[in-house]
Amino acid sequence: xxxxxxxxxxxxxxxxxxxxxxxxxxxxxxxxxxxxxxxxxxxxxxxxxxxxxxxxxxxxxxxxxxxxxxxxxxxxxxxxxxxxxxxxxxxxxxxxxxxxxxxxxxxxxxxxxxxxxxxxxxxxxxxxxxxxxxxxxxxxxxxxxxxxxxxxxxxxxxxxxxxxxxxxxxxxx
Length: 173
What we know:
Blueprint: H1 2-26, H2 28-34, H3 56-66, E1 70-74, H4 80-91, H5 93-98, E2 103-107, E3 125-129, H6 155-172
Parallel strand pairs: 1-2
Antiparallel strand pairs: 1-3
Subcellular location: Endoplasmic reticulum; Secreted
Signal peptide: 1-21
GO molecular function: dystroglycan binding
């Protein structure tokens, strides 16, 4: 019974936060004069000044032809873990700089490519693909039950994994 009440409390919180978000949207008319809001881009908040691809197919094509590795972030807009990771990712100056060396894609839906879910379809998860279009399943986070998950506290590990993805490129190609 305890578990059920937790679930309903969580759903209630989600419902409340959605309502609050809607109300915030209504007030936009006043705020736009004070602070112009950038249109929602393909970055979805992961780095508005970075160049993001629109589809998985486009990302693969660009990785192959630019000889840059591809970084794919699977997330969901209403997932608190995704939001927390997004915040630290977007505010991490070194990560944002390093990300310019990647083809970038963030997805709020799953692709049909099973290689992008080597150990399940959880979010947030981050995978690297090299220009030969091989998923680098060897570049993992610190959780054995969710190999490609990162918490906000793992941001330096994600940064070093990005460096690793770029290094592998130099040694292998």
